[in-house]
Amino acid sequence: MLPYNPSGLFPTGRPPRPTYREPNPVGGAGVAAGALGTLAWLVLFGLLGGSLVGYVWWTLLAGVLAWLTALVMVGYGDRGVAAGIAIVTAGGWSIATAAVVTRWMSSGDWPLW
């Protein structure tokens, strides 16, 4: 016969099992704030470029600076904000890559130099 395993509904006299919780949980508001801030950051830097080449290089620079900010936020700040920064930066770099590949395919010439 199997030993009886209590469900936990009634106290058994044993101490409760430990619960491990995240000291700084990632919240949706932090992710949204990081995403919106990074979106504005990438748009402002992208507008500095007057052509596709300028747009791509400014977007890469803005993305690197955003990632450095995200690394600082992971260590000393809100990790939700860092996640939002990382997600939107990856999306911005993907858009820049798609623009370069589209131009490259249509012209047959590498557009970045």
Automatic annotation (TrEMBL):
Residues 1-23 are annotated as: Disordered. This is DUF3329 domain-containing protein. The chain crosses the membrane at residues 26-49, 55-74, 81-105. It comes from the Bacteria. Keywords: Membrane, Transmembrane, Transmembrane helix. The lineage of its organism: Bacteria, Bacillati, Actinomycetota, Actinomycetes, Micromonosporales.
